[in-house]
Amino acid sequence: MTGYDPTSRAFVTDPYPVLARLRDERPAFYDDATGQWVVSRYADVDALLRDRRLGRSYLHVATHEEFGQTAEPDFLRPFWDMVRAGMLDVEPPAHTRLRRLVSKAFTARRVEALRPMIRSLAEELVGGLVARGGGDLLADLAEPLPVNVIAEMLGVPASDRALLRPWSADICAMYELNPSEEVQHTAARAAAEFSDYLRGLARARRAEPRDDLVSALAQVVDDGDRLTEDELIGTCVLLLNAGHEATVNATGNGWWALFRNPGELARLRADHALIPTAVEELMRYDTPAPMFERWVLEDVTVAGATIPRGAEIALQFAAANRDPAVFADPDRLDLARDPNPHITFGLGVHYCLGAPLARIELAESMSAVLRLAPGLTLTRPPEWKPGYVLRGLQSLDVTT
Questions:
Q1: Which of 14, 96, 275, 379 has its CA 20 to 30 A from that of 208?
Q2: Which pLDDT tens digit goes with each residue over 238-293?
Q3: pTM summary value
Q4: Contact (CB, 8 A) for 235 and 227
Q5: Domain positions in the chain
Q6: Residue 1: is its pLDDT beyond 70?
Q7: CB 353 within 8 A of CB 102
Q8: What is the C-alpha to C-alpha distance for residues 219 and 215, in angstroms, rounded to an integer?
């Protein structure tokens, strides 16, 4: 018995003892309940993320039927058309082309230019929390900050920004294991609505460009190649979903970790220069996206086990990020940990394009809390949401 059950509330609440046993005893095993091979050692996860015999998708080499999978129902077409128009669920050469084009618009300079706005927004949100004497750190800071940042970056009008968070949540629910039919229908509806909205925005920006990312994506050209309208929409959806859900969870998980480690919290309050390494350590310590899946395109051998073509692998980032073969005393939170080669943002061709933006958001929100709410105190232990693929808290109630 492994104790591995990503659908269990007990496991989601604290998966680390089970993951530690898996690393030691069953570093690669087939889980009947999920139908996945579970891989937990850092070296194996690292190697597989870079291995082109695995892919986020298999549709560039086989049909669903040829890969032993059931074809997707017609009602999910809006969801899959939108997802596969972006770069997350496609493989080279299509992925290479998309990433090259998007990178020409989503530049380091554009991201860094957002820092003053991010800082101002974080201060405004924390200031409101302080004025109210406390509240829910997730609802009052962690959720509105990234969604407003991405909306500002894309050029979504302020009057429409309330639409983005529900669309993102409904779409991302599809990435959990075995989503219910209700969740699937909701995701398809959200994908259709979001795609229609972005299509209108993209056409408006093509006609009258502005200084925003949608305009830049609409205009980017490389050797005569450019993004199609569907690819532009898929890219914008990916930036919202990947950049929002994980950042919300990283913020909540990070502060919950700090409250559970008062010595490290006191250390951070005394030395704000620790913020950059603290951000990295908190993402390692309680990974907001603890599991990523890959399809096996050619047989691979992992930890002595042969995993056949057609299988699905569950790469345990959370386990890899606490592997004692890589991290000294891995279950200890050390805000000055260096080096810290965590894999929270992935590796290989699918390394997170939005990592620089996420780091800025997390650092600026942490800085604002430390400066404006230095006495921030937890009022009650939080509860975890039921999902494991995107692992985060229901709420984080605090006083200032």
A1: 96
A2: 888 877 888 999 999 999 999 999 999 999 999 999 999 999 999 999 999 999 99
A3: 0.94
A4: yes
A5: 71-287+342-399
A6: no
A7: yes
A8: 6
